[in-house]
Amino acid sequence: MGLAAFSWWSAKTLYERDLEKVKDELLEQLRSGLRTDLGEINRKATEAQRQMRDKVQAEGVAHTLSFVAELRLKLGDPRGSIDAALAQYSAAKIGNTNYMAHAINALIEAFRRAGPAGVDATRIEDARRLLADYRHPDDSSVKQLSAILNRIDPSHGA
């Protein structure tokens, strides 16, 4: 009887010790996983915040450049207006994409006022790349700008 009691007590003690060890290992795994998960969550949150900041800044730049393009045109500087509208389009790709259409409309008026003698080949090529990049190629403004560019530089007409 004493041997049976000792065996039972020994098995129970080993079981409790093993149970405590498994419990400690599981807790350490959970803590380790939480540290890793919290680090990943923090990294993702920081990245999302950076992207939002960049988008808001780009939208502000695009908005400002719309006024710069308009002012340059009113001051009789169609080249400056073209440069501002091209920069506005680039900023709008990152920020509020609605400004992409505003940039195309500004380019229409600036190229129209500049005429063939007032625009260099680089600006024309930049505008053609912009048109190729624009995701609404059937838009009437795109067709209008394309027609103006073809009149200014017929050698690259589509």
Which helices and strands occur, and which strands form pairs?
Elements: H1 2-74, H2 78-94, H3 98-114, H4 121-133, H5 140-152
Helix pairs in contact: 1-2, 1-3, 2-3, 2-4, 3-5, 4-5
What features would you highlight for this structure?
single chain; 158 residues; mainly alpha; rod-shaped
How far apart the termini lie comes to: 103 Å
Portion in beta strands: under 5%
Helical content band: over 70%
N to C succession of SSEs: HHHHH
Rg over CA atoms: 33 Å
> Could you tell me the mean pLDDT?
84
Question: Which outline best applies?
Answer: rod-shaped
Q: How many strands, which pairing sense, and closed or not: the largest β-sheet?
A: none
Overview of the structural elements:
The chain contains 5 helices and no strands. It is mainly α and 158 residues long. The model has no long low-confidence stretch (mean pLDDT 84). The chain has one domain (2-156). It is rod-shaped, with a radius of gyration of 33 Å. The protein is 84% helix and 0% strand. Helix 1 (2-74) runs parallel beside helix 3 (98-114) and helix 2 packs parallel to helix 4.
What does this entry show, briefly?
84% of the residues lie in helices and 0% in strands. It has helices at 2-74, 78-94, 98-114, 121-133, 140-152.
